[in-house]
Amino acid sequence: MTSTDPFSGPSGSVRVRSGADHVVVLLTGEIDAYLGPDLVRCVDEALGTGLPVVVEAGEVTFMDSTGLGFLARLASRSGQRRITLSGAPEVVRHLVHRARLEQMIDFSGPS
């Protein structure tokens, strides 16, 4: 699996790792406006591979509308492929549910 350098804000980060059969976007800490431009770049990078995308969110401690927008953009631009949100804590699951994105996002792993 290859990995990009992480994009980091004051208290959160995003990293893209690509493997043979899927791409992993690893989110950690606070996913907020500080990471906005980096999240946009990660959408392009992850979808540019043409592989299924798994977003690992088990280490997310906070997510605002910037993070929700990232998930919505990633899901809407993934075409016929649904993205998988892995290990999402309740704060993330709640936002996805309130935004009605569960029609475009599959959940896996413990919450």
Spans of at least 5 consecutive residues with low confidence: none
Helix percent band: 25-40%
Q: So what's the overall shape?
A: globular
What about the largest sheet? Answer: 7 strands, mixed
Average the pLDDT over all residues and give the rounded result.
88
What is the straight-line distance between the termini?
25 Å
Q: How many whole angstroms does the radius of gyration measure?
A: 12 Å
Note the total helix count.
Answer: 3
Portion of residues in beta strands equals: 35-45%
Number of strands: 7
Structural class assignment: alpha/beta
Strand/helix succession: EEEEHEHEHE
Fold topology:
Blueprint: E1 2-3, E2 7-8, E3 12-18, E4 23-31, H1 36-48, E5 53-63, H2 65-77, E6 83-86, H3 90-98, E7 105-108
Helix pairs in contact: 1-2
Description of the structure:
The structure is a single chain. The chain has helices spanning 36-48, 65-77, 90-98; strands spanning 2-3, 7-8, 12-18, 23-31, 53-63, 83-86, 105-108. The chain contains three helices and seven strands, in the order ββββαβαβαβ. The radius of gyration is 12 Å and the shape is globular. Strands 1, 2, 3, 4, 5, 6 and 7 form a seven-stranded mixed β-sheet that branches.
